[in-house]
Design a protein that fits this description.
With about 100 residues, the chain is mainly α. The chain contains 3 helices and 2 strands. It has a two-stranded antiparallel ribbon with strand order 1-2. The protein starts with 5 loop residues before the first helix and ends with a helix.
Length: about 100
């Protein structure tokens, strides 16, 4: 996924972030600086996108190496060959589970 520049990201997220800041009262604090808040949230967005890129690369590498799933039902072992898109989706789900369990 393409990483948005700050201006595009801001246009998409400005309203939602201001709603959040209003709901939690942050915008009423004396030392509140909206510019710093948006910079902080944009940095979080960039970090998340870089992390996703890393996982996408890992998943693609794994897919290219292993494109089959073997499962056992009772005593009957079967091998299922997945289409590339389905295999990548499955790997992304495994990556999400792994990532969430690391936290």
């Amino acid at each position: 996924m393409k990483i948005l520049n700050f201006d595009d990201w801001y246009d998409i997220n400005e309203e939602q972030i201001y709603i959040e800041l209003t709901e939690n009262g942050s915008d009423r604090e004396l030392d509140f600086d909206p510019e710093k808040e948006f910079d902080k949230r944009y940095q979080i967005y960039l970090d998340d996108m870089r992390e996703n890129d890393k996982w996408n690369e890992i998943a693609e590498t794994i897919f290219l190496k292993y494109c089959k799933i073997t499962y056992t039902f009772i005593n009957d072992s079967k091998t299922l060959f997945l289409e590339k898109d389905d295999a990548i989706k499955a790997l992304f789900e495994f990556a999400k589970i792994y990532k969430n369990n690391k936290k």
